[in-house]
Design brief:
CATH architecture of the largest domain: 3-Layer(aba) Sandwich
CATH superfamily of the largest domain: P-loop containing nucleotide triphosphate hydrolases
CATH topology of the largest domain: Rossmann fold
Largest sheet: 6 strands, mixed
CATH class of the largest domain: Alpha Beta
Strand content: 25-35%
Number of helices: 11
Length: 384
């Protein structure tokens, strides 16, 4: 966790009536290169006051570089960073009124919890009474009441993270920047801390920018997600919109496990569904309503959880894609079971089924039926 000290209110605060109509953070055409490598290319976004926005993407997509430019730790080649109506593109780090928590919490091992949280407040020369009040409030918000005299080595990983968060929120920052703060925790604790972090953000009401490469983490915590690839924005939307209406193949496959087909579009006269033909002659139906792709090739994504599996042939339904298949792989994961199955005269697909009596009786080598609704197909052009 890096502590960023704060400027006086008179230096950065605007008139309250004016601030109501501004975004908490506006970034315009931000660019950054390192040598010949383009890390961030013409990045722009508006972030609402009190919003929890996540930068999501694979390693090297530019998400941490953008966060560090917002913090003032990296200087952009060009572009503008506007924080609560003020251009802070070239404002020093210590005057940006920003709280920042890194993957490494960077707690001072020789200081108590109280002193760690109070560190930045003392740097800003706040009165002792104000420091005590703010530290007490921060401890309560991160649920560390009564642990103020402990040292970091006496705390669990989750408690250390809460200290880092407490230190970040104690000075009441304009914006909170979180760079993969949960990645050092085990899976169970990470899930618990997702809930705690989101609860804390909602309680404090601070605008939060979160960086992660973990799709499920981003989906669970964010109001909106900004998906990045090679330093460029792919889509900014709510988790639900991103998952159900991805704008290109990259987003469709990066969020969730999916089967991807490159297909030719063949219109069926008099029917709302369209016949699609993949390599090898494998054909299936999709709902192409509103899609103008006839005669073209497109990517079709079928998410693994929408595919049904059964030893019995599914009931006839107009347009239902139904195929015989042979199970090649089975993985039990508690609440669900994942399968790989090779379709007769078709490709191998992955699917996820609920852990029920039906799926419990299916094993590798079994002959089964797999099916999915034509409406479940996510369709994107090949350039996505």
């Amino acid at each position: 966790m890096l502590w960023l000290s704060f400027a006086c209110a008179s230096e950065l605060d605007l008139n309250q009536e004016v601030r109501k109509i501004l975004y908490a953070l506006t970034i315009k055409n931000l660019c950054k290169t390192f040598g010949t490598s383009v890390a961030v290319k013409d990045f722009s976004i508006d972030i609402n006051d009190g919003e929890f926005l996540t930068f999501l993407g694979p390693s090297g997509c530019g998400k941490t570089t953008i966060l560090r430019m917002i913090a003032g730790l990296v200087t952009p080649d060009r572009g503008q960073i506007v924080l609560q109506g003020l251009d802070v593109t070239h404002v020093p780090v210590h005057k940006r009124k920003i709280g920042l928590v890194f993957q490494s919490y960077a707690l001072f091992p020789h200081m108590t919890v109280f002193d760690n949280i109070a560190f930045g407040l003392r740097r800003n020369k706040l009165p002792k009474k104000d420091i005590a009040k703010r530290v007490s409030s921060a401890l309560e918000k991160v649920r560390l009441d009564g642990l103020d005299q402990r040292f970091p080595k006496q705390l669990s990983g989750g408690q250390q993270q809460r200290v880092a968060l407490g230190r970040a929120i104690a000075p009441e920052p304009s914006i909170l920047l979180l760079d993969e703060p949960l990645s050092n925790l085990d899976k169970q604790l990470r899930m618990e801390m997702q809930v705690e972090l989101k609860r804390l953000q909602q309680e404090v009401g601070v605008t939060t920018v979160f960086v992660t490469h973990d799709q499920s983490e981003a989906m669970a915590m964010s109001d909106r997600i900004c998906v990045l690839k090679n330093g460029e924005v792919q889509q900014v939307d709510s988790p639900e919109q991103l998952y159900h209406q991805p704008q290109n193949k990259f987003i469709a496959t990066f969020l969730g496990r999916s089967n991807v087909f490159e297909v030719s579009v063949k219109k069926i006269t008099g029917d709302r569904f369209t016949m699609l033909e993949a390599d090898g002659g494998f054909t299936f139906l999709a709902d192409m309503t509103g899609k103008k792709c006839e005669g073209n090739k497109v990517h079709v994504v079928i998410r693994h959880e929408v595919i049904k599996i059964s030893k019995n042939k599914p009931k006839a339904k107009k347009g239902l894609n139904s195929f015989t298949a042979n199970v090649t792989f089975r993985a039990f994961s508690g609440s669900s079971i994942e399968f790989m199955a090779t379709l007769s005269d078709g490709p191998e697909i992955m699917l996820k089924a609920d852990n029920d009596e039906n799926s419990q009786s299916i094993f590798p080598g079994d002959s089964v039926w797999v099916s999915w609704d034509p409406k479940a197909a996510l369709i994107n052009k090949l350039d996505g």
